[in-house]
Amino acid sequence: MRRGVAALMVTVALISTPTMTATAVELFPATARASLADIATGNIHVVLTPGNPYDDKPSRPIAGVPVGIKKLDFDLNSPDDIALLEQATMAELVEKAANLPFFLIENTDHNGEVTFRDLSAGIYLVASPLTDADFHPLVVSVPAWDKETKTWRATAEARPKPRPKSPESAPYLPPRITTVDPPQSVPSHPATEEQHRNKGLGRLAQTGANVLGIAGIALALLALGVMIVRRNKRN
């Protein structure tokens, strides 16, 4: 473990996922350590963004989102602690803070912003207290070093990367049961067209024979009637 580092870490920048193998650190000159004691307290300003609207992933809401902070066991004035912090991955820092209670939990306003005020100097984990987190965790230091002005800033800026929404499962639909009528039975030896035609002709022939029989009986009765009339006239 290296000792006597020449610089102190001020901000551990945002890591897109907690499984990254390295942290991005921002250092300041060792000469700034003397003025570190001048700022005993500071703030963390958290800003949530809905994410890229063109990445085809549904974005999460940014208003009313619970955001929590945990203070990690690192001393900005300890070279040993800073060395450990520089070598730690985001996954290790998240695991280290797993058993720590949230120091504070606040909800974001309608702009997706929330500020934690009057915090003692140190290293803080910004994370979601929800199981289905709305954003990825990140680590910041209070106070924060401004590389442009080379001065300490009492308020550290934290912009966590949003997580996409979990895909919603499709609603359950009960299985649909459809009844089908059984097919009609088909004769083993279907009649041919010729058989149907002959059957029709048979009916017609039989009908003609019946008509002729009735006509013959009528003629016989008529002849019998004529004979009876003639006999009566003779008598």
Automatic annotation (TrEMBL):
UniProt entry keywords in alphabetical sequence: Membrane, Signal, Transmembrane, Transmembrane helix
Keyword Secreted set for record: no
Single GO biological process annotation from the record: carbohydrate metabolic process
Top-level taxonomic group: Bacteria
Region (Disordered): 152-199
Gene3D superfamilies membership: Immunoglobulins
Residues that span the membrane, as ranges: 211-229
Signal peptide: 1-21
Descriptive protein name: LPXTG cell wall anchor domain-containing protein
